[in-house]
Amino acid sequence: MTTYFIKHELSEGPGTIEEFLVKRGLPFQTIEAWRGDRFPEKITGADAVVSLGGPMNVYEEERYPFLAEEDLFIKRIIGEKVPFLGVCLGAQLLAKAAGAKVYRAAKKEVGWGTVDLTGSGKNDPLFAGSSPSLEVFQWHGDTFDLPENGTLLAIGSEVERQAFSVGDRAYGLQFHVEVSEKIITDWFKADAAPYLVHFLKIKEKYQAEAERIYRNFFV
């Protein structure tokens, strides 16, 4: 059994999620969807599937054909109740696969912000032990409707839908729980300084909250 990471471009990797698995000796494989890697035909025995971020939009399937393949893959995951975690683009892909609309948000979110757990979020196993308000890192221009069978777990002041579940095995996080100093530097290059300064101020708490989510999801 193993965890599958789905990558959509080179710089959008699993970050601290991978570090969590490595520290615990948990096996994983990476599907480089943007490079044409095929999605597994058999997923019933998988420990989990984690779909990461990317610069594309879920509705750009003609430009990025792998998005259509991933949509079908996530539909299978939902149907077979394999644990799934979608991050940013991955969350939007989960929403689409579950029948919801994905579209441009009224405002693009980039940088640090706060999301608040809903009543359902406070009682959901994924956020067990989490603070009711979480400081998170954002970088997205799209948002999504909540799927008919979805549960809203966290909300934001600028973009409302920040975390949700579909059933009890599939989760979407609009924010980037996986970021590290290296990831922020790789993403923003010469413009990374203000984001890094704040990250270093909250690093210990941020990583503790992230690890709590990983532990709740994987263990």
UniProtKB/TrEMBL annotation:
PANTHER family: GLUTAMINE AMIDOTRANSFERASE YLR126C-RELATED (PTHR42695). InterPro entries: ChyE-like, Class_I_gatase-like, GATASE. Residues 43-181 form the Glutamine amidotransferase domain. The lineage of its organism: Bacteria, Bacillati, Saganbacteria. This is Glutamine amidotransferase domain-containing protein. GO terms for cellular component: cytosol. It comes from the Bacteria. Coiled coil: none annotated.
